[in-house]
Amino acid sequence: MRVLFVCLGNICRSPTAEAVMRQRLQQAGLAERIEVDSAGTGDWHIGKAPDSRTQEAAKHRGYDLSSLRGRQVSADDFARFDLILAMDAANLRDLQRLRPAQAKGELDLYLRRFGLTEDEVPDPYYGGSEGFEQVLDLLEQASDALLVELKGRL
Ligand code: 4NP
User: What transmembrane ranges does the database entry give (predicted)?
Assistant: First the structure.
């Protein structure tokens, strides 16, 4: 099974979602069976490491994002991934436009899928440090819920 997390730049929210979920899968012994990746709808940060503020905040909670590199989502991703999870409503709309008609991959808004208190992971890029903590708080909760779903689908 393959899961793709998507945000705008692929340097803040979606790489965090990827790293948190990968850690959950490793802890559950499922890293070999479930593949996770991330991508951005935009093309500004292709090949770039995650934002330094994102890396720093994640590192404090034990997630290492240093080896990740930005990439842009492509039409092929809809054939490759079983589940594509958008961080916010704008990302979801962009993905719906890109999605080929016969695509097998399911598309959803990550937090809304699991009925968390927020529907969207707010973009932390232009804000202060609390935004990066909130991203981690929301994505840790969502990852726990996603792990339960994925275990049920194996
Ligand atoms: P992300 O955050 O979508 O969570 O990676 C952003 C990163 C960069 C930009 C916007 C959002 N940007 O405008 O460059």
Answer: none
